[in-house]
Amino acid sequence: MTSSSRRRAIAVAAFLAAIPAMAACGAGFDANTNKPYSPNEAGVLVQNSGSAISYGKNGVMIPQAFILGPDSGSQIAAGGSAPLYLTILNKADTADALTGITTNQQQAASVKVPGPIQLTPGTYAKTPGVTVDGVKQALLGGETLQLTLQFKNAGDITIAVPVIARSREFATLPAATQPAPTPSTPLTGASPSSPVAPASSAGPSMSPSPQTS
Hints:
It is a single chain. The protein contains 1 helix and 11 strands. By secondary structure, the chain is mostly beta strands. The strands form 2 sheets. Strands 3, 4, 5, 6, 7, 8, 9, 10 and 11 form a 9-stranded mixed β-sheet that branches. Strands 1-2 form a two-stranded antiparallel ribbon. Strand 1 (about 45-50) and strand 2 (about 55) form a beta hairpin. The longest helix has 24 residues, at about 5-25. It is globular. The N and C termini lie far apart (about 150 Å).
């Protein structure tokens, strides 16, 4: 092989190696790599029966689920709240509804769902205004909370939801309102406006005896 043929072979090999990267770049902002990602995305509710693997449960699919954590380098203190973002797809033939969400009591106190979230067949539904309240430990991002979704028809479905730091593509999402700190209880006793008179060091006063004439 001549030196020129060898150079052409190297150039062709380099071009072929670059094709996958070029294809990924050409996918644009709609590429999966540019969409918000959570560790259980596209892997939620994967059912393995041994002979086949199916995605979803009782007609429900959840392509994305995450809890919005604090800004990078910050934390949501114990007792605070964090927004819950779900994308739910109803693959059943009939309408369904997400009626409530419960949480592991060792991880959080409750999950607030403003009202039933209707699930039309074949349509993606979001969960605006849903928050996980009263977290038991401070959230830094990277934790996982166990939640049980309660559906009208599909029943209860338990999933593990990751906590994602509020940064990069998540930075524009609104953070949950945190509860106001509880004021300290003042000491009981006399108030400054009602001072207690100091005790006298003298003994009890005596009235003079009446004079006899």
